[in-house]
Specification:
alpha+beta, four-stranded antiparallel sheet, two-stranded antiparallel sheet, 8 strands, about 45% helix
């Protein structure tokens, strides 16, 4: 019975994702050309077995908002417009323009997203950015810190940009306006030595690199509360947990708008954002 129920739910999810791939509407205007690819993408969005970050995952809906943003479309994975936009992206980047989402296409997308993070570029050069001088750091206020996970500090210009981002989100997104917890920070600047000691003590470093060199050491990385799945933590990397976050209006607004304020995402963690503009001397105390 369980397998029958699972099969039913899978079919329902595929159809829901497709949104009626051959129906009328702005996202279905070229269904005669890309309708079949739309249906395939609708199925793979929930059922594709792959390992983009090492562990097996099923489906790619957790990444859909960032992919849609890169393809310059709001149309969902199960629509002909998404397939046609994806084909255009593939052709531009030297891939076969199939209009079908696959691991090779994701690797190109991932590379583009990573290249926009100065911290990643520095690590690729074998460098670990120094933490900022203490006089460049400013204190968060209590209403900006999520629950009891106190973060206290961010680089002053980053803190100013964060506050402008939150003000805009509260003005533009009813979900954020109604819930003061959304977009609170649960991790900001982390002292490199203290961070390494915490990782070693708790055994949750995800490898030596994070303990030795985390982007949080720069004072420009923030972990934002964007919601959570029932029974999961605010930074749970379980696929189902990340899908819940990705479906939320808060995360989708960030994907579309955080760049206005200087922030770029880390694709694997919907909560993690990095400020990419250089230190602004106007914020020196």
């Amino acid at each position: 019975m369980w397998r029958s129920l699972l099969a039913f739910l899978t079919i329902w999810a595929v159809l829901a994702c497709a949104g009626g791939a051959r129906a009328a509407g702005p996202c279905h205007t070229n269904a005669d050309v890309w309708g079949d690819e739309a249906l395939v993408n609708a199925g793979s969005a929930y059922g594709m077995e792959w390992a983009p970050f090492g562990a097996i995952e099923y489906g790619w809906m957790a990444y859909a908002p960032l992919i849609q943003q890169e393809l310059h479309t709001r149309c969902g994975p199960g629509t002909p417009i998404f397939a046609s936009q994806l084909a255009g992206f593939q052709q531009t980047h030297g891939l076969a323009p199939t209009g079908l989402f696959d691991a090779a296409t994701f690797q190109v997308l991932r590379g583009l997203w990573q290249e926009r993070r100065p911290f990643v570029i520095a690590r690729a050069r074998g460098e670990c950015p120094d933490p900022p001088p203490i006089n460049q750091l400013g204190y968060l206020v209590a209403s900006e810190e999520h629950a009891d996970r106190l973060t206290r500090l961010l680089r002053r210009d980053v803190l100013d940009a964060y506050r402008r981002l939150v003000a805009a989100a509260r003005a533009e997104v009813p979900e954020v306006a109604a819930d003061p917890e959304l977009l609170q920070i649960f991790s900001g600047f982390r002292d490199p030595e203290a961070d390494a000691a915490r990782c070693a003590q708790q055994g949750n470093c995800d490898g030596l690199r994070r303990a030795v060199c985390s982007p949080h050491r720069t004072g420009t990385a923030v972990d934002l509360y964007v919601g959570q799945a029932p029974g999961r933590g605010v930074d749970s990397t379980a696929t189902a947990s990340r899908e819940v976050m990705a479906r939320g209006a808060t995360y989708r607004w960030l994907v579309a708008n955080a760049g206005r304020f200087g922030f770029v995402p880390y694709v694997y963690e919907p909560w993690h954002w990095e400020y990419v503009r250089p230190w602004d001397p106007a914020f020196a105390p």
